[in-house]
What we know:
With 353 residues, this protein is an alpha/beta fold. The chain has helices spanning 17-27, 29-44, 116-134, 151-162, 174-184, 197-200, 246-251, 259-265, 280-285, 306-323, 341-348, and strands at residues 11-15, 56-59, 64-71, 75-83, 97-103, 109-114, 141-145, 166-170, 190-193, 206-209, 216-220, 230-233, 242-244, 253-256, 278-279, 298-301, 327-330.
Amino acid sequence: MSAPQPSKLAFVPFVSVANMLRLIHHIGIENMLSGIADYIEADFRRWELFDKTPRVASHSDVGVIELMPTSDGHVYGFKYVNGHPKNTAEGLQTVTAFGLLAEVSTGYPVLLSEMTVLTALRTAATSALVAKYLAPKGADTMALIGNGAQSEFQATAFRAICGVNKLRLYDVDPGATRKTIANLADQGFEITACATGQEAILGAQIITTCTADKQYATILTDNMVGAGVHINAIGGDCPGKTELHKDILSRADVFVEYPPQTRIEGEIQQMPEDFPVTEMWQVITGAAQGRRDARQITLFDGVGFATEDFSALRYLRDQLTKTGLFEQLDLIADPDDPRDLFGMVRRAGAPGA
Length: 353
């Protein structure tokens, strides 16, 4: 009696880190950021089809581990992701992730992928997509406050999607700024390293805050923010973690992904429950107005939402048949007789199996 061999249904396409990196270089990072942004935009336009829930979070005093599920009724997706700011000091990534897509009709997975790199891409793509709708016309200068693992992705996405080519960088760790400058030195940006956050925002039409500490922080004070800017606040992404003084929120028009999640995790956790916000899907579909005039302060309180990961995985899946940059992972036990899983287990232990 021989052990059963895996059926075709047992195999699930798997994108490893190595193949994700190959895919980025095959497609081109700016093209990939733009492509992911297009998929995110398309899914925002069909927002009402999606299951929506705040992410399921397990918090500790050192970080958070989260599951982010959603479905459009045909395909189900989820992402596992952590956020541990202490990790950098220990030589580890602050954020790691993986994700999965499955067919709703059968429940069978159809894609498993690393998402540490893909999350960095989708976060930057989302920021730049939002800025396409909210930033001042002709904006070409961005202040990047917080020069960690996300900073170069943000810069690259904003150039690809919004035309930003001037960067003003600041981080409390000068080494982080030096790292960002080195990584972007040959990418055609005009880069200025700044000694303070106040200096970084001078002349910037877009201000991106992306810091990692899990605490209430004031990266931007009210007096630092003048009329007409767009603020891309993406560092605050869990309860007890913010970057902006609440008076800035009172002066700005605030745009969010999914209010029930953002009120728990975003900058607006500092504000009353009835603090007014506009959902980005409404702006993208034309149901609500984005930027009205040149003096308006727009603020994207971005915490990352499951539909964006779904979009990124959907984009990724569509690239696989074109590139072949994946492996087949024997993931699903699929016996010849679906009622005889035990028999499959028993035969695997037979002599000669």
